[in-house]
Design a protein that fits this description.
This protein is mostly helical. It contains 15 helices and no strands.
């Protein structure tokens, strides 16, 4: 079992190699385009700033996930072995659950405000953008993967499979790689994920998949890259302040929430999509 789990960790670790190659290429491309100025460097630092609270809460998140998955495993309907087939199945199932984790993170205003909007708030798109994540994710995302544990998959396998899904997505945060033809139709890619980070109307709430695009094709959320992409939020935060990077949408949420006068309005505001007017 330890060998097989280590194999999954090694697979996720391979995803860390591409950023080491792509980031220098991206900086060189920006340098050649004379776009590597002060503002760009400040945005890069802003992208890196959420790492501090993520690292600070790593112990708590790890303990939480271990407790949650271990507790759920006692109610599992089976105890599946760890082998090549269950590893592949766990990754596919984790990717499927990631689609819904990701989609709800966009379409539930509370989740968007306190967590996922952080990742989308940069007007830049490069390897550092992938690191612009909220520490709150660590306490929200694990709940989506409980069904896989309840089916009988080893909790550590489920956690590792989720790690593979996340690690895969690091390399797709780049403008250095263009369209990839048939690959874009089947797998998540730089082109597909550029669409996902776009602010244009035709691109909003598209391409939620982690590794595979099949879920977006099935549920009507796939959109190929066409017009040049503009990145960030519909309401740009226009700030590199680390506090604003992490809290801008949460602040907007609270300011609106306290003005609402009925519980119907409040619940609608919390759980409807960010574009629903209350």
């Amino acid at each position: 079992m330890d060998t097989q789990l280590k194999m999954i960790d090694d697979l996720a670790g391979l995803a860390g190699i591409l950023p080491l190659l792509l980031l220098p290429l991206e900086f060189w491309r920006l340098h050649k385009a004379k776009a590597l100025g002060k503002r760009t460097w400040l945005e890069v630092l802003a992208n890196l700033s959420p790492i501090i609270p993520v690292i600070a809460t790593t112990g708590m998140v790890t303990a939480f996930v271990v407790w949650l998955f271990s507790s759920a495993s006692s109610f599992a309907i089976a105890q599946l072995p760890i082998n090549i087939w269950t590893i592949l199945a766990a990754i596919i199932l984790a990717d499927f659950m990631y689609y819904w984790d990701h989609r709800l993170g966009h379409r539930v205003r509370l989740l968007w405000a306190v967590s996922h909007s952080v990742h989308h708030s940069s007007p830049l798109y490069n390897q550092t953008t992938a690191l612009r994540i909220s520490f709150v994710d660590g306490f929200i995302s694990p709940w989506y993967y409980l069904p896989i544990v309840l089916l009988g998959f080893n909790p550590f396998l489920v956690a590792a499979a989720f790690g593979v899904v996340l690690a895969y997505q690091q390399w797709i945060h780049t403008e250095t790689i263009g369209k990839l033809g048939w690959f874009d139709l089947i797998f998540n890619s730089p082109s597909n994920h550029r669409v996902h980070h776009a602010t244009q109307e035709q691109y909003l709430d598209k391409n939620y998949g982690g590794i595979f695009m099949i879920w977006d094709h099935l549920f009507g959320t796939y959109e190929p890259e066409g017009d040049p992409v503009s990145y960030g939020l519909v309401h740009q935060i226009d700030s590199v302040n680390p506090v604003m990077v992490h809290c801008a949408e949460a602040i907007r949420f609270v300011k609106k929430f306290v003005t609402l006068t009925t519980w119907k309005q409040r619940l609608t505001y919390m759980f409807k999509a960010p574009d629903v007017v209350v």
